[in-house]
Specification:
The chain is α/β, with parallel strands linked by helices and 281 residues long. Helix content is 38%, strand content 21%. Strand 2, helix 2 and strand 3 form a beta-alpha-beta unit. Bound molecules: adenosine monophosphate (AMP).
Length: 281
């Protein structure tokens, strides 16, 4: 496994791989790898000849006052984990390699980025689409892998790929969870042990809503109210948003019909957790 920090070397290696006609799977991450990331890597390795994992805490997708500085980083541990799942190349550039002085170009997907996480994190998705577009240009992957855990991100990136005619396939893989249902996230590390116990409320409340839908409930307001009640009963949990939206334009639905995304963001102190499920009726 090679570890590359500069773009010139990355381009040389990718050029060689392409010359051999090999397919390339890319898994973009911010590092501090967990089983969610590793599941993407295993799929990418199984479906492609050459696996590239990028590890880059992208300053552009963090807002002011967010956790860019504190975001957990452990490249040595990440290298071991990535090597163990057959990663061929880690690209871990410093910030100045990705955004040199005078950097001025950004990629922005409209509409889909102003709702859900986009409304509480202005500029976040502009940062995501910009860095991912750059990674796609640098690595020219055949397939790129993302998690359903960040459902809105997956929608936004799919839109970017379609609208900009990018020549690759996005693969969205299921959310990997802890045994008690909490979605794995590098940010779970911030939780105190008391908060960690309460954090199961995200997935529990989503599952309860899915159960209500199965029993026939179709009113999104009633479902949202139920989820909000569940969240408020968990000590230290503050609901940031709960939305039930369609899975094409992420618009709030007036009745639950077809395929809907139920998405929530909850804060425990400064730690912001998200989760979602897709229900189909
Ligand atoms: P991050 O390092 O948090 O930016 O995540 C990198 C990629 O891993 C993104 O495509 C995420 O959606 C995905 N990911 C993060 N957590 C999980 C999880 N628990 N299950 C599946 N994919 C995940």
């Amino acid at each position: 496994m090679q570890i590359v920090q500069d773009i010139a070397t990355l381009r040389d290696i990718i050029g060689e791989v392409k010359k051999k006609g090999l397919s390339i799977g890319l898994v973009p991450t911010m590092g501090f790898l967990h089983e969610g990331h590793l599941s993407l890597m295993r799929a990418a390795k199984a479906e492609n000849d050459f696996l590239v994992v990028s590890i880059f805490v992208n300053p552009l997708q963090f807002g002011q006052g967010e956790d860019y500085e504190e975001y957990p980083r452990d490249l040595a541990r990440d290298q071991e984990l990535a090597a163990a799942v057959g990663c061929d190349l880690i690209f871990a550039p410093p910030v100045k390699e990705m955004y040199p002085r005078g950097y001025a170009t950004f990629v922005e997907v409209e509409r889909l980025t102003t709702v859900l996480c986009g409304s509480s994190r202005p500029g976040h998705f502009r940062g995501v689409t910009t860095v991912v577009a750059k990674l796609f240009n640098l690595v020219s992957p055949t397939h790129a892998y993302f998690g359903q855990k960040d459902a809105q991100q997956a929608f936004v990136l799919q839109k970017m790929v379609e609208d900009l005619n990018m020549n690759l396939e996005l693969v969205i893989r299921p959310t990997v969870r802890e045994a008690d249902g909490l979605a794995m996230s590098s940010r779970n590390k911030y939780l105190t042990s008391a908060q960690r116990k309460e954090a199961t409320v995200l997935f529990k409340s989503l599952n309860k809503a899915a159960g209500e839908i199965e029993k026939g409930e179709r009113d999104p307001e009633k479902l949202k109210e139920k989820i909000a009640q569940e969240i408020s009963a968990a000590r230290g949990a503050r609901l940031e948003y709960i939305e039930i939206v369609d899975t094409s334009e992420l618009r709030p639905v007036s009745t639950v019909a077809g395929s809907c995304l139920i998405a929530i963001a909850v804060k425990f102190d400064q730690t912001r957790l998200i989760d979602n499920i897709v229900v189909g009726v």
